[in-house]
Design brief:
The complex is a heterotrimer. Chain A is α/β, with parallel strands linked by helices. Chain A has one domain: Rossmann fold, CATH 3.40.50.300. In chain A, 32% of the residues lie in helices and 27% in strands. Chain A has a 6-stranded mixed beta sheet with strand order 5-6-7-3-8-9, sandwiched between helices. Chain A has a 3-stranded antiparallel beta sheet with strand order 2-1-4, with helices on one face. In chain A, strand 6, helix 5 and strand 7 form a beta-alpha-beta unit. In chain B, helix 1 packs across helix 4. By secondary structure, chain C is an all-alpha fold. The chains are: A alpha/beta, B mainly alpha, C mainly alpha.
Chain lengths: 229, 122, 277
Amino acid sequence: MIEVKEITKRFGLKKVLKGVSFTANKGEITCLIGINGVGKTTVLNAIMNLTPIQSGEILIDGEKISKNSYEKITFIPDAITMLPQMTIGESMQFMKDFYKSWNQARAKELLDFFKLKEEEKISSLSKGNTAKVNLLLGLALDVDYLLMDEPFSGIDIFSREQIADVFTSHLVEDRGVIITTHEINDIEHLIDKVVLLDEGIVIKEFNAEEVRETEGRSVVDVMREVYKR
Amino acid sequence: MNVIFNKRDPVYVQVVRHFKEQIATGGFEPGQEIPSRRELASRLKINPNTAQRAYKEMEEEGLIFTEGNNPSKVTRDEQKIQAVRGELISEAIDSFVESIRPIRVPLEEVIGLLKEKYEKER
Amino acid sequence: MMNYVKLVNFELGRFMKIYLVLIGITVVSQIAGVMVSANSYLNIASEEMNVNSLSMDAFLQMYGVFSMNNVTRTLWFFGPIALCAVTLLIYVLFIWYRDWFGKNTFIYRLLMLPTERINIYLAKATAIFFMVLGLIACQLALIPIEGKVMQWMVPLDLRIDLTTLEVIHSFEYLGIMIPTTFSQFLVHYGIGLMAVLVMFTAVLFERCFRMKGIILGVVYAVISFFAFISPLLINEFVFPMFLYPGELFILECVAGFIVIACAIWTGHYLLNRKIRV
């Protein structure tokens, strides 16, 4: 379980996070939604210790993040994390060199799944394919938790469908996933849990099926109500 | 298998309903193997946890059964299948009646129209 | 440890193209320098001796014999050295900033490697250090080759062959880069390494705190500088001539080690606690 407890974060004088708390379970897809602001990405960065927080605590399976955590949790940002002059194959080799949890067989499978070629250069990839390589590099790690920042934004519809397919496949199953998005429509059926973020606080945290079952409302219905205030 | 889900009913309920339709209409034969939960999730593009929930529900209702480690199968219980069929018919009639009643059409006229339409559409 | 080695290797690989170009420029320019200087010397010689019918002795009296000293003072020779030095100096900063800039933010990957983050810092420093040593080694290998080119062009009567050591001694800038005793080597390269590490940590201050970080970085660098020369200052102003040169030297070494340790420790702290992507 990933536990985010009362974290606060300032950029200069601007408070971006004002005490954000939520949990994300293993085996579930948790969706961090925010209509506006920069809070979502900052939360993911904070979980990965890529940005300092002013107060609060983040635990991954009860432990604070350390170098060993990066074999257990990985982050797929919305920009690619490899050098433009590298090929996809070289990027995979780089990952293999540094991560014990790298699963080369799975990486090859993903390569096929996304119809990518090892000899393609990162700098020559389309936006959609860049997103796929990014996803490949994260998903091929045998980690328990995956964080994805806006995996669906700014890419063509077919890439989007392919990426959505990943979520329902064995490539994600049994892992804990946190994804951020501002556009829920495509993935309403895929997610377990929704955390609504606004103005630096969590305004609602709920289970998507539960809301449908007990209130007969869709995730978008709830968002509509919550963000209208 | 292609299901269009609405966004307000629980997804697992919609999956169960889809299975009931298939069972009632013979789309699934009695005793036929059904996809694993992972397979179902990826075919319907739904969360694997939801697929799991749907199967659990159906197992409890006796629509499917699992022997040991084998894949789950559609029930062979003829009574059950008939009951599902009855349930679906009754649900459909209910909703039909509900929407036709406000129009205040005499029953005879409804039956006549229904007959005409039903046979033409077939 | 393995990760550190892999990172050093990776950092070297990333700069290899530019590095090889630098070496290429040095080789071409310096050998061209030998040829051009030898040529112009020989032209003068033939003019003086054939046209003005100067005797060889009189010519040598006037112009001196040709040696590598004639070459090392030309732009052809020290130009590429300066180019390499400036490039590496810039790269001391750029080796960090390149990870943040552009759409492909490699810093995410580096910070998420399952290894102590200080390894990134140390690997970058080691890569710079190796690249400096590599350039020096190339220069050392190049001097005898240039001597051969000179021998091939200038007749024995008009030239003096110098050993590599003599060439180095003849030109003080070379002397700094290529110390001739081991302790000198330690002093020169220790100070160099210290400067690189202080620079790295100053860059990290900027990367952590951005605008505010520039000020912090500068303040930090100034403090480090004064900490390093503090024994000299004390000996000069507080207790004038209190220390023997040997004692002063030891104190300088101690100050240097402290500055290096502080740079690494601060870098470690910033990378673990304050860094942002």
